[in-house]
Amino acid sequence: MEAYRDSFGNWCTRIVAPKGRTRVSADAIVNDSGAPDVFVPQAQQLSVSDLPEETLLFLLGSRYCETDRLSETAWNLFGQAPKGWGRVQAICDYVHRHITFGYEHARMTRTALEAFYDKTGVCRDYAHLAVTLCRCMNIPARYCTGYLGDIGMPPPYGPMDFAAWFEAFLEGHWYTFDARNNTPRIGRVLIARGRDAADVAISSTFGPNTLTSFRVWTDEVRAK
Q1: Has residue 205 got a pLDDT over 80?
Q2: Which single residue of 3, 47, 60, 209 has CA 20 to 30 Å from 53?
Q3: CA-CA distance, 217 to 204, in Å (whole number)?
Q4: What's the pTM?
Q5: Full domain range(s) for residue 84
Q6: Region 203-220 average pLDDT
Q7: Which is it for strands 173-177 and 162-170: parallel, antiparallel or unpaired?
Q8: Would 50 be classed as within a structural domain?
Q9: What is the CATH number of the domain that holds 69?
Q10: Whether residue 150 has pLDDT greater than 80
Q11: How far apart are alpha carbons 156 and 144 in whole angstroms?
């Protein structure tokens, strides 16, 4: 096993697996403030000419985010929305209503444009569509993957899974937005950021392989 950082600054592990069954696992304790996602409704949108150079990449189209195909739609939908936080929230509200969630709708090749027309998907589809619409409105947006448990949420609790959300760049800072849940959450654990899901796959395999089992857990441990 070898560790390295990719072009987005994410930690990656490279594994050369032998023939036969291979089990890969990781466990960690994360110190969290217990506070929900930051809410800054007064955060303003910067003009493109004032954006830092490192954010410009996140205005462009990418593998799953077809800004060229959704630009006109985005301006028709959100051109009159208040700039800044209000515009990003309007995009989240729209995507949250527009897509029906269901694991049976999961498809790893679905793009933002297809999610827009299919109106079904999982968290990555919500994130891809919201990211694309933000970029179309000249708001830098980047895709995030990580863990999101049920801390602070009422039961019943469903099975744990990886989660996807996004960050938008407003007034000099990256802020967390989640079109799938569309409410501030507690205990969000970021794993990686990128242009879209192609940049932050949980695993990339080369050669024939079969996934036989998969488990994710996020449990709250209260400090004594």
Answers
A1: yes
A2: 3
A3: 21
A4: 0.95
A5: 32-199
A6: 88
A7: antiparallel
A8: yes
A9: 3.10.620.30
A10: yes
A11: 26
Q: How far apart are CA 144 and CA 131, in angstroms?
A: 10
Strands 120-121 and 173-177: unpaired
What is the model's pLDDT at position 151? Answer: 85
For 115-123, the CB contacts below 8 A with 24+ separation are 116/70, 116/73, 122/164, 122/180, 123/163, 123/164, 123/165, 123/180
Give the position of tokens 């827009």.
116
Contact yes or no for 128/143 (Cβ under 8 A): yes
| Other Cβ atoms closer than 10 A to 139 | 25
Three-state SS string over the chain comes to CEEEECCCCCEEEECCCCCCCCCCCCCCCCCCCCCCCCCCCCCCCCCHHHCCHHHHHHHCCECCECHHHHHHHHHHHHCCCCCCHHHHHHHHHHHHHHCEECHHHCCCCCCHHHHHHHCEECHHHHHHHHHHHHHHCCCCEEEEEEEECCCCCCCCCCCCCEEEEEEEEECCEEEEECCCCCCCCCCEEEEEEECCHHHCCCCCCCCCCCCCCCCCCCCCCCCC
Residue 40: half-sphere exposure toward Cβ, Cα within 13 Å? 15
- In this prediction, residue 124 carries a pLDDT of 97
The pLDDT, as a whole number, for residue 14 is 94
Tokens representing 85 are: 């936080």
